[in-house]
Amino acid sequence: MKQSFELEASGWDTAAIMRGLYGDGIIGLPGAFDRNWAARMREDIDALFAEAKATPGGALPRGPERFYVEVHPERVRGFVDIATHPWFVAVCRAVLGPDYRIVEVGFDVPGPGAQDQPWHRDFAAPEATTKGRRLNSLAFNFTAVDTTEEMGPFEVAPGTQWDDLSAYPNGMFPPRELFPRYQARAQRKLPRMGDISARSALTIHRGTANRSAVSRPVLVVGVDAPDATNAHHHDLQVTRGYAATLPAEVLEHLTYRLVDELEFVVQAHTIDGLLQADGPSMAA
């Protein structure tokens, strides 16, 4: 079933945000940025992707013709615009609390020939969710293109952020016998340039096959509550010169290492199960 983002500007209040993320597990704001802004983001992604692919360890495969690249904030010209956008701030504060932390900046590039991913979540559910019934992290997506059906849209199964996958590989990959549950709930998202979405990375989802002749780049920003531990898997660096230009309200919500010069990011957040069409076997 196709479905576009539904949370419009009138839904910026905490109750609407919480209903969306604790209910479906995904919300969005159409037209958050203008198309020129999105075009500049695309330019940055294209340049960073070419650099990453030319450097050993620079781009992680996430399936055939599908890659993920983590980058440092200052290499994306629109980072401050994202971190200070009122909707971004409102969503972070509503779900993660006033002391939320930006811990990850990167991008996905599903190119022509990318195949359906297995249904999965991005990491195992923490105790805050399995026992406390609380979301303590969010992923924000910023599309660099007007997504079409042929480009392999993101597909999500609403409400599945609460599914117990603890018995399955890495707590991330449900077995094939559960696929009909996700297929029955599946919604394909068709965002346009300038849209923002926010989701729980625990909501079961997948990238679908890209049958077009063009790639579908998406910028990703990961944000944690104070008790989440996703920052341990990332190493955001900020140069002293760039830090001096950042608004205080950005720096205080950013988990980073201060450096004189940026170090190249050797990608380390491998998800081997995404390299298999049906996910890892129970023996994995």
From TrEMBL:
- Does the keyword Oxidoreductase feature in the UniProt annotation? yes
Keyword hit for Transferase: no
> Which SUPFAM superfamilies does this UniProt record tie to the protein?
Clavaminate synthase-like (SSF51197)
The molecular function GO annotations come to: 2-oxoglutarate-dependent dioxygenase activity
Ordered alphabetically, the record's keywords are: Dioxygenase, Oxidoreductase
**Protein known as:** Phytanoyl-CoA dioxygenase
Q: Which organism is it from?
A: uncultured Sphingomonadaceae bacterium
